[in-house]
Give the backbone structure.
Amino acid sequence: MPAPARRPRSRACCRSPSVDSGLFFERDARWFGTEFLQTLEPRAYYLRVPFREQTDIPLFDTAIADLSYGQLFSENFYVGGDRISDANQLTIAATSRLLRPATGQEAVRAFVGQRYYFEEQRVGLTATTPLRTADTAPIIAGLGGQIAPDWRADAAVQYSWSGAELERFNFGVRYSPRFANVVTAAYRYARETAAQPEIRQIDVAAQWPLWRGLYGLARLNYDVAGSQVVESLAGIEYNADCWIVRAVLQSFVSATEKRTYQFFVQLELNGLARIGIDPLEALQRNIPGYTPTNAPAQRSTATDVFPGRSGAGGAFDY
């Protein structure tokens, strides 16, 4: 039986010189009659990655990363190991939070950030991929927080000063009244570019009890502009106290526009072992606020509303 082909390694893989610095300020504040601890967290991140020729390296599962607040501080413009972007850039950003002094729980968070480029982009996915020539990236800003005891809302925008147009907009809400009960709904918009068509996606996900110990798990990501289901997930989790079984079917459109299916099934013996294909990473990525039913019983404190991955549009995380 022939040995499996090895995946070519990028010759550009090396440590990238970077400088990441920040400050943390806090003060007592009072908003709408409630006492908070307010923070201000400025951050500066410089990254330098020398250019390396990579056009002879085949593409397997690498794609352009969506520009998000988290990606502003990433070392690579791409997701995957087949391309490593060249870089000479500086990111300036700031975050401010309102924290409840008694518990430390985050009530409100606001952020703003922008990246400045000192050189034009040279590494592309293919020889025909459009390369960035602008000196600045779109500015990213967002606001989110607990709007009620069981509700959280988040919104984020990406605006291009050079083009004077809205690049992206996301809005999402999450309802979580008790342990392992969560429903989220989100809307994403991204304008049409040379690299991608217009994106208008509706995203809903849930973890909800159906019967004694039986929970339903689901996610649906529908692209209104493309009139297709980009990603879907359906599954069950049954908790019999001393053991748990999880079965999940996931479908998504890959970067090559092909639909891929994955099936996970796992038997967990509490405190002993897990048998089968682990679906926990897929569930946590696709269902914001998902909690394994054998975890310590407490209300989810997750601050994310948007799923961590989307086949066409990507998550606008922060």
